[in-house]
Design goal:
alpha+beta; 2 strands; Tc1-like transposase DDE domain-containing protein; 75 residues; 13% strand; two-stranded parallel sheet; nucleic acid binding; RNaseH_sf; 2 helices
Length: 75
Amino acid sequence: MTQQYYTERLLPLYIKEIQRQRIYYNRDGILQEDNYPLHGTRSQDGKARRLKESNWINILLHPAQSPDLNPIEGI
C-alpha cells in the first residue's frame, strides 16, 4: 500500500465516519494509527497529514509494529 492509495481510498472513509460521529452523536472520534510512514505521521508535509489536519482529525499514535498494542500486527 502506498501513501497515495491510503490518502485517496482509505483515509476519506475514516474521515467521513468521524464527521458522521460529530454530526449525529455530537462527539469527536479519534483515529488510531501506528507510526507507519504512509499514514503521514513522520513527514510534516505529507498528503495524509495535510488531509487529516484540514478535517480536524484527532489522532492517537502508538509505536509502529507493536504487537502488544496493536493486535492486528500478529496476523
